[in-house]
Amino acid sequence: MLPAALCLLATSVLCPPSVAGDSPQSPIRLVYSGTYRLEAHLAKPHDTLDFQTRLTLLADTDNRARLDWESWPKGHEEQRDLDTTLIAGTRVWRRTETGKPFVEARDKSAALLRARVENLIPWRTLARARSAPQRDPAQEGGALAWTDSSELGGFARRIDFDADTHRLARITRRFAHPRLGDAADEVLYRAWEERDGVLLPSSLTMRELDGGNSLRASPGSFELRLESAEAVADLTHELAPPAESISEADPGPVVPGEIEVTELEPGVLSFASKELDGRSYAVEFDDYLIAIDAPLSSALGERIVAVMRERFPKKPLRYVLFGHFHPWYTGGLRAFLAAGAKLVAPAGCAAFAEEIAKRPFTLEPDEWARVARSPEIERFSGTRAFEDAHQRLEVFDIGARSAHTDEYLVFFLPHTHTLLEDDIGWSAASDGKLSFGRRSRGLYEFLVEQKLEVRSLWQSWPVASPRPRISFAELERGVRTPR
Questions:
Q1: Is 310 helix (H, G, I), strand (E, B) or coil?
Q2: CA distance 364 to 361
Q3: What three-state secondary structure class fits 163?
């Protein structure tokens, strides 16, 4: 017989066994279905890719569990992907594709996978909170905060419950995100109901902002409803650790090297971090600098700004622009604002920049949080030019022609016939062989229509590209060659 309820009392004390059992007394199978939304690098800020999803959770009484996560484009279940996580005690394995070997996760990756699985079996989380070595029940409103043991990731988390029903309402892990600032992974529980003698949330929301690499992880969320719950006589086979697995590669801490400064041509410099795969350009004018792109995080942006100041100690950073809103070009924008640069952008990107500037960074304050002022933003439509006696920079919004984002800037230096762009011109294999696609064609056609006399093109990303520069003739040949 499965036990009755999981709840918290308003005094912040977890319910005693006489009121609510700790966990089912026999193995259980739960099936949730709904929508998975991934905030990917799409045409507009906060656009999502929406997938139908099914999460099947198996758990026994010996601290073992299995999550089979299926997802597919809406209406196309034949394109279903399967992602499996297995937990046995403190060990965690993951297989991202049927037929591939399981990989034993480590450290943060293991802790994040465990949290995802245990969001669907909250009695495990409640039990750990009760036994946590660091626990603080004296929170406002009766919430309970605790820190997991180091072997389980060492995450500090918090439980909140509904004041009227005393049922579990939320589990939250707050953390300092290098790009988003104050962030939280959380699960929200709603509409509890009894199934086969155990009280379960019939709907829930899981939001995940963190990842094994926070800089590159895209925010995602699950909106789920409970389809079925049943006691199972035996799950020994399904929950058995994999007979064979490989160990997750230990990337170790990423130790950024020096910012590499390269003069592309007189008055145009690249400031790049190869380890973090981020780059800013600086265009030099007589009395000031213009920065193009602000990569990945406040920390990286601040390092680049510092090196720009070392290189040009007497020239202020007056303007900052970015090609498009994706993190490789805006994640470090706050550092450039803190340096006093005015942002120049089309309307949509300007609004997104305002959002970036308003993000709270209280857990780990960056330079912009310490400056504590409002950003200076100039909006433009179509084109914008900067010029003095020796330099001219023309900025064009090619928009949807990029086949990438609704607003997309490219940067033309007419004195040298050079174009700077982010990532749509070409791809280069390790042997230097070039390939071109729909985005390349959109860029080429725009340059031809505008009658821009481009001779060479520099591409910002990826930083380690074997061919960061090509001639206009190569671009023209590439897009005109039948594929």
A1: helix
A2: 6
A3: coil
